[in-house]
Amino acid sequence: MHIKSSRLIWIACICLFMISGCSQSNNQSTENTDLFQYKNSFVGDNSAVSHILNGLPLSGSLTSFELATEEEPYGILVSYNSSSVNPTTNEGFTQMVYNTTYLITLVQNVDWVQYNIGDQTLRITREQLNEFYYNDLQNFDSTSSLEGLVSLNISRIFKFKEVIAPN
């Protein structure tokens, strides 16, 4: 029983750390730019996607992005510097889910976001996130409502990680 309570305390501490890290990063980025000005952008709008990515956590580690618009389903390929981002850690995974949440909420026709970090890839789809949040992300129209949704679900993110673990 002592081991179980220790694990729960440890998991709670990690969750609090990630929540504070995500909100600090997000507050810094959205103070300068209201990302919801790009709501209903299209995946083919390079400028809008670039502004969104640069306003999210991990923007300092962004090396490139590519828009996959040749055929449906449309997507965004995002490459990060492997020395500063690790999708297998809880923090790295949480930040990628957070960024994907914003991209899928703001870009109306993006169906997936794939992260390439060194030799690892992580693909998150619109369908997976809508199921995870029990909501259609397209229905969110403000930073505060989306942040509320993310905050309510942050403790469940480890279950989501088990489902779509990076390869």
TrEMBL record:
Swiss-Prot/TrEMBL keywords: Signal
Signal among keywords: yes
InterPro entries hit by this protein: DUF4825
Source taxon at top rank: Bacteria
Domain DUF4825: start-end pairs: 35-120
Signal peptide residue numbers: 1-25
Protein name as it appears in the record: DUF4825 domain-containing protein
Species per Swiss-Prot/TrEMBL record: Candidatus Pristimantibacillus lignocellulolyticus
